[in-house]
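hiii, so i know i said id send this last week but things got crazy w the move. better late than never?? heres the sequnce for the chain we talked about at the cafe, plus the structure i predicted for it. fair warning i was half asleep when i ran it
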Amino acid sequence: MLSVNLSERLCLLCGLKPGQPIVVGVSGGPDSLCLLDLLRSSGYPVIVAHFNHKLRPEADEDEAFVRKLSDRWKLPCEVDSAEVGLYADEHGLSLEDAARLLRYRFLFRVARQNGAQAVAVGHTADDQAETVLMHFLRGTGLNGLRGMSYHVILPDFDDQIPLVRPLLDAWREDIVAHCAARGIYPRWDASNESPAYLRNRLRHILLPALETYNPRIREALCRMAYLLNGDYEILTEMLDKAWATVCLGEGNGYVILDAQALRGTSAGYRRNLLRRALKQIRPGLQNVDFAAMERATAFVEQNAGSRQIDLVAGIRLLAEGDRLYVATWEANLPGGGWPQLKRSAPPMSLVWPGTWEIAPGWTLKAERWPNPALAWEQAQGNANPYQAWLDADALKVPLTVRFPRPGDRFQPLGMAGHTVKLSDFFINQKIPRRARSAWPLVCSGETIVWVPGFRPAHVCRLRQQTRNVLYLSLTCSKEE
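okay and structure toks below
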């Protein structure tokens, strides 16, 4: 009987505690009715939850059946419904994905409202074998081949209440026998016979064919899932250690990775670490395909300045120096400690001496330097890119601070008076693409005389004969 070792499955494998309520997803079929009967017979307070997908003519009859059974067994019952087909069309989902999404949203909502310790569903050993085979056909990795777990947190639905599968080691034929022995007469879903669904084709066509090679193929698939689940635990422990080294930070919709450290790992580590970053951002992301992971690892292996690609499911990869951002397109990424003008700020006039906040947290100070010889000496040995000494007699008053403009050119110190496109200068200096459009420029008329963070312009450089020196410094008072 299925009741043998049930307490072990419920307590040890599923982590359920006696006396605390459980929401049971009940479709009216044999699996869910068997699960409901076993839980209530074991003394657990259960709440029946039925979701009507409105996909079959018999759907309303199934709902009425579950309501009537709950009344007969004196169990609380929650019911909801949705036009799953319409939802799937509107959101570009398959019927199976839309049904799962809406059903699980409902089940976990009921669990929260009733203070339940878990949501229980009737997945069986047959379901496990079919799931592993389906993942194998899709070319999944170890995470897919390990199949389903007895106890799992699904952050897309709830980050605390687990989904449990107490019947994961029970075969469907035993479940049907249990229902018959207990006088339970389940509903039968005719769509489970339809070849329109991949899982049904696996169940009724492929698995019987494979049984001609191995009569116990279903057991073999479940055994493989069990063994790989143990291997996955070892891999997870190893990845946890690597993650602590590679992950630089996380935020709402983004993860920051150390690109150089990531490149230093093996290809297998890189794939799994990138997959973990994707899961951090979209916990419910299913089946990131091989091609997407290959694009991601190839992107990491490149070491070529600021760049980005659209990867998968609204997630991009953005490389900035030694930082790799795995982020949604709408994520508000943190700054890299750069000065950035406010988007609506007009050009700002500077008449020295004075102090101005030219960007949030960034203060520009301008003052005359009384000793030209000392200024020359300081400028020659300057190691701080956010300070500069300029020949004041080569400047027009007032100076202005403004945004970069299309077509801007710059005459960097040290290039013997040659000019370059400002856009090329930014690229050569590895200024991240997203930081360029709001980078502050100090200008004399139309001439750029200083790009803060870098060298001043050749035209206003200090010379031995300079008599009037302007000293500029840009300081940051906020923490990024």
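btw The radius of gyration is 32 Å. thought thatd interest u
miss u guys!!
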